[in-house]
Amino acid sequence: xxxxxxxxxxxxxxxxxxxxxxxxxxxxxxxxxxxxxxxxxxxxxxxxxxxxxxxxxxxxxxxxxxxxxxxxxxxxxxxxxxxxxxxxxxxxxxxxxxxxxxxxxxxxxxxxxxxxxxxxxxxxxxxxxxxxxxxxxxxxxxxxxxxxxxxxxxxxxxxxxxxxxxxxxxxxxxxxxxxxxxxxxxxxxxxxxxxxxxxxxxxxxxxxxxxxxxxxxxxxxxxxxxxxxxxx
Amino acid sequence: xxxxxxxxxxxxxxxxxxxxxxxxxxxxxxxxxxxxxxxxxxxxxxxxxxxxxxxxxxxxxxxxxxxxxxxxxxxxxxxxxxxxxxxxxxxxxxxxxxxxxxxxxxxxxxxxxxxxxxxxxxxxxxxxxxxxxxxxxxxxxxxxxxxxxxxxxxxxxxxxxxxxxxxxxxxxxxxxxxxxxxxxxxxxxxxxxxxxxxxxxxxxxxxxxxxxxxxxxxxxxxxxxxxxxxxxxxxxxxxxxxxxxxxxxxxxxxxxxxxxxxxxxxxxxxxxxxxxxxxxxxxxxxxxxxxxxxxxx
Lengths: 232, 297
Fold this sequence. Notes:
The complex is a heterodimer.
Chain A: H1 2-28, H2 35-38, H3 44-59, H4 80-86, H5 91-120, H6 122-127, H7 130-155, H8 160-180, H9 198-201, H10 206-229
Helix pairs in contact in A: 1-3, 1-5, 3-5, 3-7, 5-7, 7-8, 7-10
Chain B: E1 4-15, E2 18-29, E3 33-38, H1 44-51, E4 59-64, H2 73-79, E5 82-85, H3 97-104, H4 113-122, H5 136-149, E6 154-158, H6 166-183, E7 186-191, H7 194-200, E8 203-208, E9 211-217, H8 218-224, E10 226-232, E11 246-252, E12 255-260, H9 264-273, E13 277-283, H10 286-296
Parallel strand pairs in B: 3-7, 3-8, 5-6, 6-7
Antiparallel strand pairs in B: 1-2, 1-4, 8-9, 10-12, 10-13, 11-12
Helix pairs in contact in B: 4-5
């Protein structure tokens, strides 16, 4: 039943993000031959993968807090958390159900975004095989999952609005810092979305994936520890 | 097996330098209806939060059925035995009454379908109405239904009658008494409504500034405490040193009102021995007991 509650609380956000992804796809649609030249710069794929990152930020779990389930403002969300906490379920379980569902929804949006990239950008189809696109999708998902985990981490101690802003600022700061600090492409997690993408390199960026996986695991473990020890 | 549903020993809790609880002791026998009284900010909700495992005491210990509340599998097992009505009566606003019942049912293996149907009917709760559209009183009733229907052995109710109209209030109080009598459910409830506590509680504790200042069986307290009124024909002269047991003394013109916790006969004899006095004694109500202790504290 916790899954049902998490679904009620995220379904409208998911709908919103899916619509946003489709709109971005339609706007970004380009069949001109010029687009083929953009691919080597590594920016083409990021246009729509950005939708996945946006989804990760929007769908990041609220830990064990209750979230709005519709578009209208609702009273009593914060207080209903006490009802959740009075259910005979450990906080870790409450957390894992919410995080798992949010991550699954983020994955769904990511798959949509990847398909959209493949469909609306002939430049990519000219330069890469479907297997490269699949690899790119998998590698980019680890990056998206790290952003999602960051959002979850901030949700353990910040309210919804501040959580979103904190996640966005941290992601932007990380991109700026990584642009200035010369890391090998195999370690630079954000390059998975651009220069180190399998669409360009035709290989899996395993080191970057391992870094992202470690980062996500660390953020989620810290979040669960905060939630278990926090007072409400 | 412990004879107490709740045992709190020396609970201390501070928030940003303010001591919300200063060594609170509390014992709630199993099967009783326990009224937990105090002013706003006296520490009632903090105590309840500690008992429910939502907060941790800085010092002291709390036990429910002999087990420590908190997170983890043992904490979750304990929550299966407790029904909780929160102070603000907030539930998931996007669910309907029927949906939240369906949502809650699987968490509790001892869920009582008969009680669920009974209280849907008694409390007149519309199954298809959204929780966001319910009044606070209706949400109170819904929370009570959820707390009662899962077959809880202990109900922890934080201001359960808040927002109820007088008719609904009577209904709820009657049902709580019936539940305690029929199923032996322990009911621990905090309230500002002294009349309702007096109506249903077997045991009470009055807390102020984070400490229990009066506690015990309500009937014993009422027997123990007496109001002695001494009227001086020529006015009160000087300070009188009353015998032991005179807990709170108030002078109002020619009258001295004494709340005596013991030695009632000795205090009365002392009053009669004073020149020109008329001495009467009265039983005290819970309201008087509460107000006198609050004034004195």
